[in-house]
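Hi! If you just cloned this repository, the fastest way to understand the data is to look at a raw example. We've pasted two of them here, unedited. The first protein comes first, obviously.
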Amino acid sequence: MSDKPLPLFESLAAVFGMAVVALLVALPSSGSSEEESAERVLQDHLRQVRVAVRQLVESGELVPGNAEQLQAVLLDKYLVEMPVNPLNERSSIRINSAAFAEPKPNGSAGWLYVPGDQRVVPDLPTRDRNGRPFLSY
């Protein structure tokens, strides 16, 4: 190696290059981490609502046909609070209009209960970051 000092321009270029690399490494890739995190929270909260509904069904108690009553029973006996759907920021539950019909999510509630098969799905008419419908969660 030479004992000759680096010229000012080369020193500044090296520092600038290292700063750019450090910045690129520190930045999240197009917000995917945030989306991925919200989807994980959605799945966890969905699991909580599903467990509560399953416990209600297995108890033998009549499942209310009214969304407000269903939510009241879930909160009274199975949940401390209704989990929030992190993507639409709603915690309410609504009941699918036809017991055995395919669920029609519209985003008006956090969760959608399908009485025919006792399924709970996110009330989201959109798809996740991978193109999978939230209805299939």
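Ok, and the second one:
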Amino acid sequence: MRNERITGGNRRLAQWRVTWLIEHSTSHQ
């Protein structure tokens, strides 16, 4: 149960991190 919860959070965080990175990269460029 705990592992599943962590996995879901990690997946969400990964997607958010990607979007944040892309936005930052575009801003820098």
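That's it. A detail worth noticing about the second one: Residues 1-29 form one domain.
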